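Section 3.1 - Work completed
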Amino acid sequence: MDSNQTIEEIELLVRSKRTVLYLVSQEENRVMSALESLCSKADTSWDLLKWDIVSGLHSTFPEFLPAKASDCVLDQEEILGWFKKLIVPKNKFCILVLKDYNKFFGSGNYRGQVEIKVVRQLKNLSFDFSTENKAIIILSSILELPLDLEKSVPVIDFPLPNKDEIADKITNLLDKASKRPDLAAKFQTSYSKDELDNVVNCFRGLTISECEQVCTYCMIKHTSLLPESIIQQKKDIIRKSGLLDWIDTRQI
């Protein structure tokens, strides 16, 4: 399933009254951009609200935001209470993205009163919103879902960028580099179809942000996008993540 299919799945789940979703991704900006595109579609007319514990409540759709900026500063309990009370007209729909909200579920087997209330409130809202035009998406880089919510909250993994998405990003970066005389003078910005295809394949398995970082690294250190350098950078990223082991097939 690619990112477009994943967004379609989210839309399908929301339309079928799955009102609290858990979305797993390390690419917060890419996910938010995809959700904003979904909400701005002409046939949806959905508004997207965003919340995190530092920035509070914010949105590019100001219609539903409190009038005072100070009223947007809400903690993990207050944001659920505020969203529960929010009245959304029948011709509208509102999605609230809670970033890193899994951090408020408690650690391990420990749950204090606040954590218990948070989990119970989410469970209540998953039922309450089935008759209202509202939904919640919990966005986190890892899956940490309490047993109490497993049956009522679908989990969706947002996929890494596919080959076409990586190609678009790399082509865009090369185009920008070609318009900078200082870079264009020392770095190769034009590649044949086969060369670019080989380069893009080397980037696969990385996030869009990591692709940009590795590409920028190559522009600074080398005179072209060297597959060996890209692979070495990818190897370092994978090793630091601690989630996977790098296997060099050339040594097998």
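Second construct:
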Amino acid sequence: MLSIIPFSANNMQKNALYLTGGGGTTVINTTLWGVARHLLDNYPDNIGTLYAAVGGLRGAIHEDLTDVLAWAGTDRRKLSSLQWPASPVFGTSRYKPTDQDLRRLLQVCEAHNIGYVFFNGGNDTMEKAVLLSRFAKQSSCEIAIVGLPKTIDNDLLGTHRSPGYASYAKQQIISAASVFADVESFAPPPSATRKPIAEGGCGQIMIAMGRDCGWGAIPPAALRVCEDDMPNVVLTPEGGYNETKFLDRCQNLWDNYGYLALLQAKE
């Protein structure tokens, strides 16, 4: 996405602004690092500097900006350190902008010679990017708005890729394997030769965040080899729901294996 930013003689040496929105992850910081590195490596003559809004959109409106490139200087190792923290280095927010806020943001961009604004976040943040883009167009303000999707927001219309998918999939697999292994340890082992004493229900329900799509629940399910491998019941919005079939499957798995592990993608 970054490689198609238009640079022309009319916007030479414009500055860029980076905004974080919504919940923070390491992926967000890695994206910030990627933006800074890409601008330095590919557009050193076109970009004056890269500002980061302290506190996301809220900070940008209040003109609370920090000069990322000036902070890092010529030390690329210092710049690389941005990608490692688990939460947003420069903070974030879920602030909903009004028309007055958008007008103020354009004033901040004009005051700091900002011609490019990068919004890094999920659905709500991308909506704010669209609002600013439309407002700028109505105001005849020449400014490029770039949306950078974060983490698991893979249901955004037109999103080419979700940079956090691999890390999320890995974490889902690790979490599911840990939780379901605990469930299995309390179930009657297949090698038992005598009828075990019933200790109550051996079951677990896990909810995988996935917005309006079920792909968040797929990684753990992809590791299944046999029917009794967990999760042995997976529910996704795309798969539909039939109450009778669902209850029958749960009962059969319980009767055959003595445990039930259900993984549901949150709508």
